[in-house]
């Protein structure tokens, strides 16, 4: 399924820009709020919390840009998927928090699972040519 012409290519571009752009923004948010995020990560038992937040921010930022721009999109989506697979159960373990925190953690857990599903779509589509992409790391 190549997205190389027509309205489908334009819609796919908009989807890439929205999805990838928001992931990249979330990555930037990790850098802009590293102290707060590291404190939260530490409260969840994340080892080397500050470095983990910075590394996760990099995965989200570069993964999001890769998806948005069509630069090594399978690698980019793989990085985001890896981030979500590791961080979701660790950071949003709704089953192990006090009752007054369960709803918020469950909401974030479900959101991340939804993002993981979308990321897996981009991972699979990263093996196909993309229109309106920089094309670096995409098949011809």
From TrEMBL:
UniProt subcellular location: Membrane
Key words, A-Z: Membrane, Plasmid, Transmembrane, Transmembrane helix
Superkingdom classification of source: Archaea
Bilayer topology annotation: Multi-pass membrane protein
GO CC term, one of those recorded: membrane
Transmembrane region(s): 6-28, 75-95, 115-138
Main localization (coarse): membrane
Keyword check for Transmembrane helix: yes
InterPro entries noted in UniProt: DoxX
Identification of the protein by name: DoxX family protein
């Amino acid at each position: 399924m190549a997205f190389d012409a027509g309205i489908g290519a334009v819609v796919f571009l908009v989807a890439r820009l929205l999805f990838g752009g928001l992931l990249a923004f979330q990555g930037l948010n990790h850098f802009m709020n590293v102290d707060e995020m590291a404190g939260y990560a530490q409260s969840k038992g994340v080892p080397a919390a500050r470095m983990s937040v910075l590394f996760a921010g990099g995965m989200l930022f570069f993964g999001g840009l890769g998806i948005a721009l069509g630069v090594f999109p399978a690698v980019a989506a793989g990085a985001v998927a890896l981030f979500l697979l590791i961080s979701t159960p660790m950071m949003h373990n709704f089953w192990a928090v006090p009752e007054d925190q369960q709803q918020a953690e469950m909401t974030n857990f479900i959101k991340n699972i939804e993002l993981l599903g979308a990321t897996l779509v981009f991972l699979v589509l990263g093996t196909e040519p993309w229109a309106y992409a920089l094309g670096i790391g995409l098949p011809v």
